[in-house]
Design a protein that fits this description.
This protein is α/β, with parallel strands linked by helices. It has three domains: about 1-115 and about 125-130, no CATH class; about 245-330, 434 Repressor (Amino-terminal Domain) (Orthogonal Bundle), CATH 1.10.260; about 335-555, Rossmann fold (3-Layer(aba) Sandwich), CATH 3.40.50.300. It contains 19 helices and ten strands.
């Protein structure tokens, strides 16, 4: 029985980035039990034409040649080895090696721009930058795409010998060759769809620095994209913030399109929507028009179940995109005084300014003397603007001569309002006694109400005054009291303490929500379209008990 041996490692002295990539690759092979090149080839498999996607010699070259391997080939090998090695999350392992490859690529390009390769030293990433051509009679042989060959060599530049014009023209600009390789890889991935390829090359041509490279990619037919097994990721378009809904719709459309082997040209002819529009929706992660989806469903003769699913996905994606547009259209830098002047003079006394939004730049907020319970919740992660919102509500109430009681167990801008006219008291400890809160609320009545504002309410969840705070929510309308609380999103009220009582109000403001169950605290179910965005201080979603979420900006 032949003994299992590890493959020799190339000499990569002076190329630390490429060496790290190669070392990590050898370590991964060792963890996988040193499988042979043919074993790796077999696990990667064959393409639709029954050719090996990567042959065994190409696998050996990836490990043993002192060159930068093709990214697509590397990803396939890493995915196989990660699975054999039992490493959890093979996709994460592929992404890690992709990062190492990019570092090695940047290093190679930087070194080449300073020291162009000579005749004695072939380009370090020739393997990554040259694309095989496909003969007119059909797809390439299984060795064509993986055998590393050089069409020519870079003429040497001997010291002291000036280059003539022909030699100067023949000199390879290594950085340009690398960029050319990236463009050709993308063209290969799009080769089966001529419309997508035309649009891609048109974009490249419009870039001044890539005119010759685009022409080279257009004049030379690349090998069939399936030969490489993966699509190029070098020209990915950032996905829309409306991630889940739009991705699911595109995935469903793509499954039906690829199953029928439709090109964008055919799709345009059959649906009455131009192929350019379909390509644009795919490359820009935008929502197609609803009539185009309906036409697609009819052309594809989808079953009633698939037709309903497709339109349901479109409706969900449309709602998510609309929410995104409303959120992005919110005003920047509006002050409290400006927002206060925008209110209706006939607003009730216990109306509290929560935010500015809507098409007409209106101000919105809850009437604490109406609704299902006299309470309002402001929830969000750290740094989302909860304290600023509470200060705005406090200032709005003070402006209408409404008395307020403040509780700020942690450092908060609310404390700065202590001592102002209308502020009954300000609790700054991490506990509130029943008697002291009862005394602060003793003069409250429906004619002269008192509103309690609590920042970092989760700190006071088990305080002695909890029973009295619960009573404020349960009997506030009769007693002339109301409660406004701010709490961290990851510590939402879920138990049976006084804080969970605020759910009965079914209203509140969610600032940059990150958790899926955040809407529970304000009595509404949040969709995936509004959660998980980067935290934007002072921007969120307001619910006033009507079942609708309104995008608002909190005045500064």
């Amino acid at each position: 029985m032949a003994s299992v041996q590890s493959w020799r490692r190339p000499n990569l002295q002076g190329h630390p980035g490429l060496k790290k990539l190669n070392d990590e690759l050898h370590e991964l092979q060792l963890d996988a039990g040193l499988p042979s090149a043919r074993t790796i080839r077999d696990r990667i498999g064959r393409d639709a034409q029954e050719y090996w996607i990567v042959n065994h010699q190409a696998v050996l070259n990836t490990f043993q040649k002192p060159d930068l391997p093709r990214l697509g080939r590397l990803e396939l090998i890493v995915a196989v080895l990660a699975q054999v090695a039992g490493r959890s999350g093979s996709e994460n392992e592929v992404n890690r090696f992709k990062s190492l490859w990019k570092q090695a690529f940047d290093e190679t390009v930087a070194q080449a721009s300073v020291h162009p390769p000579s005749e004695a030293a072939a380009p370090a990433s020739e393997d990554a930058t040259k694309a095989p051509s496909e003969p007119e009679g059909g797809p390439p042989s299984q060795e064509a795409g993986d055998t590393d060959q050089q069409d020519g060599q870079d003429p040497s530049a001997d010291d002291g010998i000036p280059l003539d014009a022909d030699q100067a023209d023949a000199r390879i600009n290594y950085a340009e060759e690398s960029l050319k390789g990236l463009i050709i890889n993308a063209a290969q991935a799009l080769w089966d769809d001529k419309d997508a390829l035309r649009v891609f090359l048109g974009v490249v041509r419009r870039s001044e620095g890539f005119v010759r490279l685009a022409d080279a990619a257009a004049e030379r037919r690349p090998a069939n994209a399936t030969f490489y097994g993966v699509k190029s990721r070098e020209f990915e378009v950032d996905s829309s913030p409306a991630r889940l809904e739009l991705v699911m719709l595109r995935r469903c459309l793509d499954e039906h399109r690829t199953k029928r082997k439709w090109s964008f040209t055919y799709l345009g002819e059959q649906t009455g929507t131009s192929s350019d529009d379909w390509i644009h929706w795919y490359t820009h992660a935008e929502l197609p028009r609803r009539e185009a989806i309906v036409a697609f469903s009819h052309v594809a003769h989808l079953s009633l179940e698939d037709h309903v699913l497709l339109l349901g996905l479109w409706d969900a994606a449309h709602e998510a995109c609309e929410a995104q547009h409303r959120f992005e259209a919110l005003p920047d830098g509006i002050s409290f005084d400006e927002a206060w002047l925008m209110r209706d003079p006939a607003t009730p006394r216990l109306w509290a300014l929560a935010g500015v939004g809507g098409n007409g730049r209106r101000v919105y907020g809850p009437d604490l003397a109406a609704g299902t319970a006299p309470a309002f919740v402001v929830a969000g992660p750290s740094g989302s603007g909860r304290s600023t919102t509470l200060v705005n509500i406090a200032r709005a109430l003070l402006a209408t001569k409404t008395r307020i009681v403040l509780a700020a167990p942690r450092a908060s801008p609310l404390r700065e309002l202590a001592g102002q006219s209308g502020v009954v008291t300000c609790f700054v400890r991490d506990g509130i006694g029943h008697d002291e809160l009862e005394e602060a609320l003793s003069s409250a009545s429906p004619e002269e109400p008192v509103v309690v504002l609590v920042d970092d309410a989760e700190v006071l969840e088990k305080c002695e005054a909890g029973r009295l705070l619960r009573s404020v929510v349960q009997h506030g309308f009769e007693e002339g009291t109301a409660l406004v609380v701010g709490c961290r999103e990851d510590e939402l009220p879920l138990g049976f303490d006084w804080l969970s009582e605020t759910k009965k109000a079914h209203r509140g403001l969610l600032l940059s929500p990150q958790e899926r169950n955040t809407g529970d605290v304000i009595g509404i179910r949040t969709s995936d379209s509004i959660i998980g965005w980067p935290i934007s201080p002072g921007r969120g979603w307001l619910h006033l008990g009507d079942g609708e979420l309104l995008a608002v900006a909190v005045p500064e």
